[in-house]
Amino acid sequence: MTSRIEIEPARLPAEGSHAWLHLNGQCIALFQAAGRYYALDDRCPHQGASLAAGKLSGATVQCPAHGLRFDLNTGCMLSMPSVRVATFPIHIEAGKVYLSLPNQDLPT
Predict the structure, then answer these.
(1) CATH number, domain at 85?
(2) Domain housing 80
(3) pTM for the predicted model, two decimal places
(4) pLDDT(52) > 70
(5) I need a labelling partner for 63 at 20 to 30 A (CA). Which of 6, 79, 82, 94 fits?
């Protein structure tokens, strides 16, 4: 089961940029690249650095701490696809942007 949360327009990142969302104690990195929004767990699985603070290149983000690169579509590390961060679906309906998260009693 998932919770669908509308993201306020003021919180959406500009093209080629990022934003942080703090929902129910979880930090989510939100990116916009090539006109699409991507959401993933903000913590690098290596040592927990913020991925939102990393360098964005197309649909890839590079961790600022040690340079590991992750695919925004899958959350997989490019050099070792078995290592990944959680990704969260983004849906756009009637001009509104929604984020789907595993159901954790989040406000809707």
Answers:
(1) 2.102.10.10
(2) 2-101
(3) 0.88
(4) yes
(5) 6
